[in-house]
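JOB MANIFEST
job_type = single_chain_structure
chain_count = 1
residues = 148
[input]
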Amino acid sequence: MGGHDALREEGEMIEGVQVQPLEIKRDERGWLAEILQVSRKESDQPIRQLHLTVADPGKTRGKHYHRRKTEWACVVSGEGRLYLKDTRTGGEATVFMGESHMVKVCIPPYVAHAITNTGKEPLYLIVMAGEEFDPADPDTNPFHFASL
């Protein structure tokens, strides 16, 4: 856990997307990772909502993009592959995320995203968003990934 082998990304990184390795602090009790530090300016948007989503093995979550909000994502249990596509330029990238590759990914507006659980156990993804979810104005736009 915690290896940062060249960030394990595929494709040229999309403008505005940030992949940040997390420092894993381990001892005989387990491990700890600091996912967010308010003192570090992560983007122009403050965090307004935190949610947890779970993907079963072989399943894909997401397949959407936002016009206004920035999201930060971190897999805290399981293994997955995050697919990213810039809806403006067509640029694509893939980031491996999970217990064996602990990273936090910042996903700006207009970057479509989907994550597939590539492991054998449930994948637990923490998402921090720069805007609260509003059912009357959700800012969640479906996106079709041809490969998914």
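[summary]
The longest strand covers residues 79-86.
The two ends are 27 Å apart (CA to CA).
exit_status = 0
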